[in-house]
């Protein structure tokens, strides 16, 4: 989890950049595609609806002439005395009947010829039960059923009106009946009495020919009667269906004079054009399946696939480029962030794009400069400290001087000239070494001489209750040590270790341990409480030089590093042991600063 | 940079591959759709009457499926008038587009098509054995010795009679075996007197009964050349007209105006007999309550006209192959079905009630089966027997044109115009019309 977060942190730039670009590309593609398809669809639908409404007008006019010829023929039949007689008279003998049928046949043949242009079967029935059909195959309803047929009833209810109805096996429960459109009207005499019925039957497929040639897949025509029954359609499965919604839309379009209407019909998104076929009292609805028709114009699936492919390719390219751009940057950032935690002197790897390389170079240059600056600073600090210590080393406490000189004066007054001379000599030697010798490093031998002189002077001044013995390994005498390195500890032992004890000893040992030189100052004095640290100087009163115990430790560390220095162990009443460790320095070796 | 260009090239390739692939599939869709309409593997048939011709053709299609399962036979039902109209329109314009491979044509009209459009029909002389079919069917289907049609149903006619009515008048079916039309009328009068039922039902606008009478004498509306009207000096026609008027005068005729009302007249038991084609059988048997009450006698013959026999025809139809792509397949189809399949003809009898004119089929068992509806009479066998005796006439080119004239003239004759004048007027009208 943490890893993932880390990764995200380092790749944040890439992720953001990529996401924004990818989202942008997708958004632009989708919007463009959608808009293009939409605009072309709208333009197409507009054009389509104009064309189709013209087609509908054309269909309407051919249907009008169809309707007109039916009306004309109906009128002729209604006015024919022969037919009226045929339909009302009683059966006579063979000859009379034969004659009546003959005349009826001749008459009907003439009337039929006026609708000969259309495939129409004319049936007339009379109140006397006679029926004459020019061709029954168009609408083969048995005589027994015809009187009770819904179409008959509908026409009898409105005897003066020409009614177009739909009939098939399902609609009137006559098995084997093909879908047909029936124009029916009652035959009425002047007194208003109905003496017969006329039926003009057209098979639905024939009726469909009026518009069939103008339909295509997704561009369907349905003809509805006043009850919402689809009486004719190029779609076989629609014929005979009841569709109230289609009728409602058709009426709405007709009433409002709309050019077209978008609606959800038959479970699909459709474009509807409608026209009332005036004389027929039918509605013709042009149902255009938008999806299918537009599908022919714009292969949406194909466009979508292509756009998707282009988008995928672009996103891939963007991915690779931005990854390439940010990868080196990310690596650089990673390196930099680890560097700041650990080392200052490590350089970052310079690679990647031009910008990243320049950044890396600049960063490396900065690191170099910083490094140099820090080194310089450390050096300066070191030199300053050294100078300070050197200065301290040169300083001889004036108290020491005049105390010593006061002691010599007493010796001379007491007459011990030899002792005075010895003390003066020791003082001279001490001063010579401390002030006169300018070199910082001196041999163990020289330091030993200094110590001896210093001890002599102190013993002269304070008596010989503290004995000092030297155990110097002879092979160590030639090694070099910082000047006045051991002296402060002797001084310390003299003035602080024997406050309670009256007398004791101080051992000074110098030996070689491995590659380092060890100097030990051991006393059997009072001892002290140590908390692991070198005690702070109590006062400066009795100091010989400016150098104190603490300074020695600092100086050694400054000169030789952290591995060297002063360690003090002490037990109350047992004494104190000071151990100084420095590297072995050959006489010829110059001091390493 | 190089990497980038490479990537772009790959993208372009991939994209173009995608789009070309979708093109391919679209093309495949189109081409497979085109194959569906391949003319070689599909033939179209036009016929009328779903209960008879269409049914028979479907049987043939099923039988042929075993021989050539790849052939699709598309059978389209059209009204006979539509077929005539479409054939005339298509053939006279010279375009064969939209025309079927096989078409059913009524024998009366066949010559008018065969002679008017000789190039439009495919010669089937090599496909069928003409001598295997009834002689009288070869006249209408052939021109100049070339056979263009495969004869289908026999129009052989018989006299359907209600035996129960007959018995009420004191007759038996055996009394009708060898009678003239005059005897037929006499029996009719007695039946009407005994039962009150009419003897025959006629349509004043259809002279089928006249046609049957004259063909039984080997004569027709036209001379043997098929072109010259033969009315005024036609002895058979003259006698037929007289018989017709006698029928009316005897007041034993019921009238009908079309097929349905004709059938209704018999199914209701209102009329006792009908001289008509064998295809009337299914209509009679449809009324199950009359089972056992019917018999079929040979046709009456004309008494005065020489050569008149007890066998005649009332039409029928035959299959023709049009000279359009796929004609070889269509010819092969007809050859193996209507042209030679004896078993298929048995099925026509049992399943459709259609009696073919293929002579070898008459020996099949369906032909010799007894029909219980007709009191155990072997009606198919009888019809097949009569079929062979039908006189061959040339229906010629103008059968219906002349009939239209005769329909009018026969009314004049019934209304009192002298017969010779009637025939003379009809002859002169016919001469004027067909020349």
TrEMBL record, chain A:
Tell me which InterPro entries the record gives.
Bact_2-comp_sensor_kinase (IPR050640), HAMP_dom (IPR003660), HATPase_C_sf (IPR036890), HATPase_dom (IPR003594), Sig_transdc_His_kin_internal (IPR010559)
Q: Where in the cell is it found?
A: Cell membrane
Per UniProt, what is the membrane topology? Multi-pass membrane protein
Q: Which domain of life is it from?
A: Bacteria
Residues that span the membrane, as ranges = 12-34, 303-321
Q: Which residues form the HAMP domain?
A: 323-375
Pfam family of the protein (one): HAMP
CDD domains according to UniProt? HAMP (cd06225)
Its keywords, alphabetically, are:
ATP-binding, Cell membrane, Coiled coil, Kinase, Membrane, Nucleotide-binding, Phosphoprotein, Transferase, Transmembrane, Transmembrane helix, Two-component regulatory system
What name does this protein carry? HAMP domain-containing protein
This chain's source organism reads Paenibacillus glycinis
TrEMBL record, chain B:
PANTHER family, sorted: ARABINOSE-BINDING PROTEIN-RELATED, SUGAR BINDING SECRETED PROTEIN
Is Signal among this UniProt entry's keywords?
A: yes
Which residues are listed as membrane-spanning? none
What Pfam families would the database entry show?
SBP_bac_8
Q: What is this protein called?
A: ABC transporter substrate-binding protein
Q: Which SUPFAM superfamilies match?
A: Periplasmic binding protein-like II (SSF53850)
Q: Which residues form the signal peptide?
A: 1-22
Q: Provide this UniProt record's keywords sorted from A to Z.
A: Signal
Q: Which organism is it from?
A: Paenibacillus glycinis
List the InterPro entries hit by this protein, alphabetically: Bact_solute-bd_prot1, SBP
UniProt cross-references to Gene3D superfamilies, sorted A to Z: Periplasmic binding protein-like II
Keyword Cytoplasm in record: no
